[in-house]
Amino acid sequence: MEIHHGRHHNAYVTNLNNAIAGKADLEAMSIDELVKNLDKVPKDIATAVRNNGGGHWNHTFFWNIMAPNAGGAPTGDLAKAIDDADTEAIAAREAEYKERFAGNEQRRKAGLAVLNPQEYLAAEASYRQVLEAAGMPKGFYDKPSDFTAWIGGDVSPQEIKSRVDMAAERLNQTDPTARAALKQMYGVSEGDIVAYFLDRKRAEPILKKQAAAGAIGAAAIRRGRVS
């Protein structure tokens, strides 16, 4: 407390006095008046007065309410307001936690062990690693919510790797000339096609968007050739 009062609080007072030195109107104000009338403080010292004046006021308030064996828990309306705020904050945190780790609720209902945050995040990272290595397009299974069903269903990264390999094998069975044409005309990569085989419903909008962009680009090239 001696360090806090003699150095920390004292620094606020010293810096405030230095900031308003030579300005008689400000020096004549009490600290309460000063912090209430910051609009009257010149702009070049406004930040120093606000920060150090506020620090001085807060510490003065702190010292004045301290006393041996005094205080105690709040009562009445203040206690209720604090309790209500704490309850709302806890509920908000719980809701955010459940949303972020939504797969755990599915695991719980299925009688599976709930993953701790580290295990949950590690599973997501493993899924991403498998998909990125296969060249999956952006927007295809790359958000936390995309992995909820996999985690909830206890699908291992190894199982996802097997699915990706099977999709890649289907790709290899397609006409290479057609694949090359899709790449050249629409910018559809082999990873995009693997994504389609892996999850047609999720990949189709992404591929359609790429195809539309490719068609626009091709039309622009044709117009340039004609002109």
Describe the protein's topology:
Blueprint: H1 2-20, H2 24-27, H3 31-36, H4 43-64, H5 76-100, H6 103-109, H7 117-133, H8 148-152, H9 157-172, H10 176-186, H11 190-198, H12 200-226
Please provide a written account of the structure.
The structure is a single chain. The protein has helices at 2-20, 24-27, 31-36, 43-64, 76-100, 103-109, 117-133, 148-152, 157-172, 176-186, 190-198, 200-226. It has 227 residues and is an all-alpha fold. The chain folds into 2 domains: 2-64, Orthogonal Bundle (Helix Hairpins); 114-226, no CATH class. Helix 1 (2-20) runs antiparallel to helix 4 (43-64), helix 9 (157-172) packs across helix 11 (190-198) and helix 11 (190-198) packs antiparallel against helix 12.
Distance between the termini: 82 Å
Beta-strand content bin: under 5%
Overall 3D form: elongated
Residue runs with pLDDT of under 50 for 5 or more positions: none
Count of strand segments? 0
Q: Sketch the topology as an H/E string, one letter per element.
A: HHHHHHHHHHHH
Specify Rg, calculated over alpha carbons.
32 Å
Classification by helices and strands? mainly alpha
Please summarize the sheet with the most strands: none
Tally of domains: 2
Count of helical regions: 12
Report the helical percentage: over 70%
Mean model confidence by pLDDT: 82
